[in-house]
Write a structure and sequence with these properties.
Length: about 250
């Protein structure tokens, strides 16, 4: 469970553990990952940290770190949720900031597919968390949207290549939901309301909704190269004007 210490990754780790999986929580935040693994152990009635579930430090933007994570491992399922976001117009976005987002969201997922794909058992599954923004552009969100669109295509190519071994590679694309990543953004006045108004289902989604989709894909032996939207039907309507609302709120 790469990026498993927070938000969607943590919800997914909990859902997998509740389903009987032995989970390794790998995250940039090693301390939080260790605490989360201990929490999962505690829920089994075992002493926290008895080692059924595990924690590892990983930085998906560093190939050596990702390679070391999978060294000697043979998981049945690899899930990657590691992601970061930023705001900036195409015409004045800082290139280093653009690269930072692509590095984590796209190249990071490539490195997980590369080394995780070598390690995963035949017949297993790899699932990456993409985004509604893989299909829907948002003003000021070029780096994130481009990285997530690239991730969906990356997963489709990986699905073709790994399908020979029965390994199913898919993505889940969530809409806007509250996690530590989006909490500050969702505080922008009008944003949550605009999202809801432009969705088929107006209530707010949760990280648990996304976790459910991950488990569904894992248990679906004939699904490969699919991008599963979990967004309340938001792709049917208009994406909120994040930059416009932020500019009006803070200027
Ligand atoms: N929350 C949303 O509304 C939403 C919507 C669509 C897509 N997503 C995607 O879902 C994924 C999870 O997001 P979240 O909302 O749970 O955010 P989050 O910030 O709660 O969790 C992201 C996790 O990734 C880890 N991480 C960040 N950089 C890393 C790196 N270089 N190496 C390893 N781990 C790293 C963080 O430490 C954190 O634990 C992201 O890819 C995000 O783009 C989120």
């Amino acid at each position: 469970m790469v990026g498993g210490a927070s938000g969607i990754g943590w919800a997914t780790a909990q859902a997998l553990a509740a389903d009987g999986w032995q989970v390794t929580i790998a995250d940039l935040d090693a301390d939080l990952a260790a605490a989360r693994a201990g929490e999962l152990d505690g829920r089994r009635g075992a002493a926290a940290g008895d080692g059924f579930h595990a924690a590892r430090a990983v930085d998906v933007s560093d190939e050596g770190s990702v390679e070391a994570l999978f060294d000697g491992a043979s998981p049945d399922l690899v899930v990657t949720t590691a992601g970061v976001s930023t705001l900036g117009l195409v015409t004045d976005h800082d290139a280093a900031e653009f690269r930072r987002v692509v590095d984590v969201c796209l190249t990071g997922a490539f490195l997980v597919f590369k080394h995780g794909g070598r390690a995963v058992r035949d017949g297993g599954a790899m699932i990456a968390i993409a985004s509604l923004n893989a299909r829907r552009p948002g003003r000021g969100m070029a780096a994130y949207c481009a990285a997530k669109a690239g991730l969906v295509m990356l997963a489709q190519v990986a699905a073709l290549e790994l399908g020979e071994r029965g390994v199913r590679v898919n993505t889940v694309s969530p809409g806007f939901l509250v996690t530590p990543l989006t909490e500050p953004v969702l505080q922008i006045p009008g944003l949550a309301e605009e999202y809801a108004e432009n969705s088929a289902i107006p209530h707010r989604g949760t990280a648990e909704d996304v976790a459910r989709a991950v488990l569904y894909l894992e248990g679906s032996p004939w699904m490969a190269g699919e991008d599963l939207a979990v967004d309340g039907g938001a792709q049917l309507e208009r994406y909120p004007d994040v930059l416009g609302l932020a500019t009006r709120a803070f200027s």
